[in-house]
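@here heads up, posting the sequence + SMILES for the adenosine-5'-triphosphate run so it's all in one place. Ping me if the SMILES looks off, I pulled it from an old spreadsheet.
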Amino acid sequence: MLLHVNQLSIHFHARQGIVKAVEDVSFDLAEGETLGIVGESGCGKTVTALSLLRLISNPPGIIAGGEIFFQGRNLLKLSEKEMCDIRGNHMAMIFQEPMTALHPVLTVGRQVREPLIVHKKAVRKTAVQDCIRLLKRVRIPDADTRLHDYPHQFSGGMRQRVMVAMGLACNPKLIIADEPTTGLDVTLQAELLEFMKGLTQTEKTALVLITHDLGIVACYADQVMIMYAGRIVEKAPTLELYRAPQHPYTQGLLASIPRLDQDIQQKLRPIEGQPPDMANLPSGCAFHPRCPHAKPRCMRELPKLMQISTGHDVACWMHSR
Amino acid sequence: MKPFILKRILYAFLILFLVSILIFLLGRAGDPLEKAALSTRMGMADSEVVDALKVQFGLDRPLHVQYYLWISNFIRGDWGKSLFYREDVREMFINRLPITLELFAGFVFWSAIIGFPFGFIAALKRNSWIDASLTTGAVIGISIPVFWQAIVMIYLFAVAVHIFPPSGYVPFSEDPWKNLLSIAMPSFILGTHSAGIISRYVRSSLLEVLGQDYIRTAFAKGLRAKAVLLRHAFKPSLIPVVTVIGLEWGYMLAGAFIVEYMFAIPGLGRMCMNAIFAGDFPIIQATLILVAGNIILVNFVVDLLYGFLDPRVRVQ
Ligand SMILES: Nc1ncnc2c1ncn2[C@@H]1O[C@H](COP(=O)(O)OP(=O)(O)OP(=O)(O)O)[C@@H](O)[C@H]1O
Ligand SMILES: [Mg+2]
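bot reply: prediction finished. Complex structure tokens:
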């Protein structure tokens, strides 16, 4: 197993109190596999991703518990120096906002070749060549001149590709892509995702794909993990999840997107209510105020994540005795 | 980059031109000769003498002609004669400018050597007792008036303990060590004010930069903290600091004049103060032009630095 996350919890000490941004999250990821993480804004997707690289800023955040095994080593036990050798080298992250995640006053070339210089001890000249190759790989036209440009001279889609090129620089074993395609038009979106999917096949790279978009997950992920208020509510192989969603939240998410195989007459039903305040979560199951099937027990007790069939876990009282 | 610089240069000259008109008009406000006479308590002489003087200084001609003559002479290096000392104004400036420049260099030295490191340390140790004491120090440095600080420091370091001379100036050519001693305290007084402001700005600017997404990206690439700081955080954190340095630079020339007066340093400031009291308008005008030129030059340099530090400015 390339990545094994076990009961990970991440807390933030905010002014309103302790925010349990990620609580008791476990998952596995093998080489060449793609895991989709889906959930509403604020449910802890980015925080989960950042913790894999141990990039949670402390203060205010702390990794309150759990284990992260990557290539057999527990990342939470490594020194900062050892962590630096992993970041950008064996594990890379593509950030959510290409607008702000790229350095505004350094040239794109310098930013893309930096991982090579840090990890591969590349000299500047070969790094420049590699950098041009990388930019060409993500299909940036005129890569050899665009190298000298600054991020503000690129369009949103191009910046996103620059982020991808930067992530790919050292051929990492694991790529974490945090909403890599939000805000891109559909063709660009497909192109970038196809490209990354290609890497999982040719290079056996594992991919963590974070998104709001269940459509993207359906096309590209092998496994899906649905998060709500910092916890996993359902985790299943993609096909299974779409065929037989078990958690009311998953069902709600699926009912709120249009489907081709559905009667046009049938209305889309968005999930009622608002995502919860993370500093002040509802008692019991955090989803109960919005759940159409809520029972008194859901308000009192938190349901555990239980396996209902091979590889399919659900955290809901409807499915546990 | 080239059109950017060219535009800035043109802009600087335009402002200098407008400012020179203003300065010229200020010098002509009221009857300059009358003012000069009043302040020297000579009383006005008979009208023939006054008229002769007016002709001598060109005050009988229309204003725009006067301006043209004045500015063209000024550019050619003829800055007129002092009404009071009867000396060539340009000569007087050339004699005193090095002294003020030395004071100013000392000011820049102190404010940089205190302001930048303190700001960095405060940011890196934020919310610790180190940060708190540096902040307190900075606020004190900013809020103490120059003249009060001068009095206290003269008392402490020249009267109570004889480290520095209480006032006066020794030329470098005469005795380099004494020269440094005589300039150290006045320039330090100027420097502490700016150092306080610079350290505050460096601190907040660095903290802001360190909270940016692109710094997280740098860490995600596997850079060590030191490399992130030097290669990614340092340059953008200077952008807002450059602005305050520019402002302080202009502001502190005025401070230098006050300090020169207090420490009896025979620089431009002292000369200008005396000229103001005496209504010696050729000197006042030349000083104002220099002060304005200094500020315009600094603004120009600040703009260039912006362009250098921030590529987003360049393309506009
Ligand atoms: N630096 C921080 N300080 C305090 N709380 C934080 C911090 N970072 C994240 N959180 C909290 O952690 C929770 C999860 O945030 P996260 O960024 O992971 O959401 P997300 O699922 O990625 O949302 P989005 O889809 O909008 O990107 C948020 O509710 C937020 O309140
Ligand atoms: Mg996010």
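MO: Chain B is about 80% helix and 0% strand.
MO: One more: Residues 38 and 267 of chain B are 26 Å apart (CA to CA).
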